[in-house]
From TrEMBL:
InterPro entries: Cyt_c-552/4, Multihaem_cyt_sf. Residues 1-21 form the signal peptide. It comes from the Bacteria. Residues 37-125 form the Cytochrome c-552/4 domain. The keyword Signal applies. This is Cytochrome c554 and c-prime. Keywords: Signal. It comes from Candidatus Electrothrix aarhusensis. Pfam families: Cytochrome_C554.
Length: 389
């Protein structure tokens, strides 16, 4: 897998035609506005949104995303092609020139707030419908500027409101989180198929204490932090880990059980996300005797939960060049998987088993100059079991 680092180059970038692709905002529509305008009446929700990765989705706000985007642009330039910010469809959906960004006719501008805003309040809450397309979906936004929710307040408000069934069970999320296909119909992510009847809101926008707005009668609201793989508490709710040692005569065997307890794949969505099991066996003095891998979790294929792409016989290609999936060892929704390890060394008296999650493999961190900021390179400990023999 010497080409693994190439695989990780894509993140959400697909090399395919972008002609005609942009969210639909009717002619003469009320323009989108900065999210900070919502803070006066919705201070709690605005603060939550600021902490979310929706607020940091643009390559101008997320250094990791920015680094991968620049790597993609350079890769295209080496081929004599002009790079584009195809990711704008979901990462900068409020851009006032989104079509030009996606085709490469324009570049991100840090002085343009619509490029840096990320996925803001006035974008999501003006969604009227989802425009389903083959490669990925888009949204159709309303013309009058009214803000849609599942149950809009009936009191006098400083803005128009509207009711939308899309917000009831999280269907509104599927404009961006449904699927992404490359130009050869290879699924980069396929949440619409990987999710098993799940309601995104249950986990990613749970009910929390506090009124949705100043003066509102309600005592709870849906959190707009929208946690995911960057949140250790969310990760701990995604999978369980168990381990036991079985004996047959003088032979001892470690059996590790990992179960995905969420309603979609683990890890999910972003091709860079990985999870793996690390096993360390020690003697009675605490000295390491054996481990299931030394440098890369790929040394132990059964413990590695990841998705990789291929082109012909070549494995580990970037997603835009892929003509198929090389392998997909991620845990499906509700799946239980058992790993088995012989404990041949009689000196082994203790075994530590850990389920670890990473946003980016170490090769991606190095290959694309992704900043090591205490988050991007972090190994999140999802679960741990220690056994004494």
């Amino acid at each position: 897998m010497k080409h693994l680092s190439l695989l990780l180059l894509c993140c959400s970038v697909l090399c395919c035609s972008t002609a005609g692709y942009s969210h639909e905002l009717p002619e003469g529509a009320v323009p989108l506005a900065k999210s900070e305008q919502c803070a006066a009446c919705h201070p709690t929700i605005y603060k939550e949104w600021q902490e979310s990765f929706h607020a940091k989705s643009s390559a101008l706000k997320d250094p990791a995303h920015g680094a991968v985007h620049q790597a993609f642009v350079k890769a295209m330039e080496k081929k004599g092609k002009k790079g584009n910010y195809h990711c704008a469809n979901c990462h900068a959906p409020m851009a006032d020139n989104i079509k030009e960004l996606m085709t490469g006719a324009a570049e991100l501008d840090s002085n343009n707030w619509t490029h840096a805003e990320g996925t803001g309040c006035t974008f999501c809450h003006r969604i009227e419908s989802i425009v389903e397309k083959k490669l990925f979906n888009q949204y159709r936004l309303n013309k009058d500027g009214s803000f849609h929710t599942n149950k809009p307040a009936k009191a006098n408000l400083p803005h128009k409101t509207g009711q939308s069934a899309l917000f009831a069970v999280g269907k509104v999320c599927m404009g961006c989180h449904s699927h992404k296909m490359n130009g050869k119909d290879v699924p980069i992510c396929l949440m619409k198929d990987e999710a098993q009847g799940s309601n995104c809101l249950e986990c990613h926008m749970p009910q929390v204490k506090g009124a949705a707005a100043i003066g509102a009668k309600g005592t709870t609201h849906r959190s707009h932090k929208m946690p995911g793989g960057h949140d250790i508490e969310m990760l701990k709710k995604a999978a369980t880990l168990d381990a036991e040692v079985t004996s047959k005569g003088k032979e001892r065997n470690l059996v590790v059980t990992v179960k995905n307890i969420i309603k979609h794949t683990f890890p999910s969505t972003n091709p860079m996300r990985i999870a793996f099991v690390k096993v360390v066996a020690k003697d009675k003095n605490g000295k390491k005797v054996w481990e299931n891998f030394k440098e890369s979790p790929m040394e132990d294929k059964q413990s590695f939960f990841f998705k990789a792409f291929k082109a012909g016989e070549k494995k580990g290609v970037p997603s835009w060049a892929a003509d198929g999936i090389a392998f997909d060892t991620r845990l499906k929704a509700g799946e239980t998987r058992q790993l088995s390890y012989p404990l041949a060394d009689s000196a082994i008296s203790q075994v530590d088993v850990m389920l670890i999650y990473r946003l980016f493999p170490s090769k991606a961190i190095k290959g694309f100059a992704i900043p090591e900021d205490g988050v991007n390179e972090k190994a999140y400990l999802v679960a741990k079991k220690s056994l004494t023999l």
